[in-house]
Amino acid sequence: MSLREERPEYTRDSDYYFDDGNCRIRVNNYLFNLHRTILCRSSVVFRNMFLLPQSGEGNPSVDGDRDDHPIVCHDSLEAFRAWCWALYAGIEELGGSNSANARLGEKECAHIGLLAHKYECLAIEKWAQGALIQRLSVDDHSGRPSRSISPLRLGYILEVSTNCNWTSAVGDLVEKHLIHTIASSTTPSPVCLRNLRIVLEIAEGLGNGQLAARAYYHHLRSQKWCLALREREDRIAEKASRFSLRDDARRSDRWVNHWGDESLMMELTEAQEVRLYRGFISLSALRGRLRNMPEVSRQSWVALDCTCLASHEKKWREHAQKIWVDDSFNDITDFLVEMKRRLSIDSWTGKAHSGPGSCALVELKDEINNFLGGFEASLTEFFPTRSLPWFAGVFARY
Ligand SMILES: [Zn+2]
């Protein structure tokens, strides 16, 4: 057997092995033959590499000048091909709205952006971000994605966008899409549950506690804040099923990891369950406390003798009591928005307030609006991502 036969055979890429190319690049078992001028035009990394003295002394060969002497790139084949496409399209063509450009999906754009970042093709990287923003568009008003993309694909895009330090605009859009994969259904479909688990894995893999917290919250919200199987079924059917305190209904009324036989495979991990429960409990408790009108926080400059708020306390309790029993307002933000509507809170101007200091009425209005406005950002406080090892022991007993 000759040496030549021992060498692994590489396949010439059908699209990007140019006969007149002068730069062989190997990716996995595929050989590409590109043009140095094209590479230098876009990539700082290749430009610098070609400036370096190449190969050992006495060896006239230059890296990449022969099939058996390629430059090796440790990239995925699919990503490399997408990047080649962008290199040869050139930035002028990328900027246009030609059909080839429109055919590219969000995954290809992420591939291109990833390698453009790695090989320092600044213009192409910037283009890829813009193309992604365009492809991930959501409805301005409802925030709903214009089309659905699988969570695994979204996870890849988020990972690329995080690792390349792209503008927050890309990450924000990907997260909106990911949340949508969990929250798009109001019944606990196996798909939504599987997606919850995938999104949590993505968030944990990237150390993105904010995304994990939003995933837990939107899951609970989509389930109308009902973790008990029987009760949820009743709500969906809009009537109570027959039960007695003696039958096994209470035992079969299992918790969140038991959604039904088909979903047994999709249980959350124990740590994930703990976080879900923690958020569920603390947000439910806060909603419970809202049956009484909240006080204005002590930090604000409220006049000591302001009694404007007191005149609204009774009305607050009356309305809060009414919507407290209504499942439509199980979510704390829905509850507060409904209270704002019923008490016309946005029209509280403190006109009747006299004396120095600010009016408690106005302060409370601001606090409610600030709470609602910053709610998504505050979710990590309700669903803390730090693992609490002692909890695992407590739950293991059940
Ligand atoms: Zn006042």
Report on this model:
- The chain has 398 residues and is mostly helical.
- It has three domains: 1-135, Potassium Channel Kv1.1, Chain A (2-Layer Sandwich); 136-268, no CATH class; 293-396, no CATH class.
- The chain is built from 19 helices and four strands.
- The chain has a four-stranded mixed β-sheet with strand order 1-3-2-4.
- β2 (23-27) and β3 (30-34) form a beta hairpin.
- α8 (151-163) runs parallel beside α10 (190-205) and α9 packs parallel to α11.
- The radius of gyration is 29 Å and the shape is elongated.
- The model is unreliable at 261-265 and 390-398 (pLDDT under 50).
- Zinc ion binds at residues 306, 308, 350, 353, 359-361.
Over all CA atoms, what is the radius of gyration? 29 Å
Instruction: Examine the coordinates and then state which fold CATH places here, giving the name of the CATH topology of the largest domain.
Output: Potassium Channel Kv1.1, Chain A
Low-confidence stretches: 261-265, 390-398
Give the spatial strand order of the biggest sheet: 1-3-2-4
Average pLDDT rating: 84
What are the distinct ligands in this entry? zinc ion
Gap between N and C termini: 66 Å
**In CATH's first tier, which class of the largest domain applies?**
Alpha Beta
The CATH level-2 architecture of the largest domain is identified as 2-Layer Sandwich
Beta-strand percentage range: under 5%
SSE run: HEEEHHEHHHHHHHHHHHHHHHH
What is the overall number of helices? 19
Shape by Cα distribution:
elongated
Domain unit count: 3
Biggest beta-sheet profile: 4 strands, mixed
Helical/strand content category? mainly alpha
Give me the count of strands: 4
> Which superfamily, in CATH terms, is the homologous superfamily of the largest domain?
Potassium Channel Kv1.1, Chain A
- Share of helical residues: 40-55%
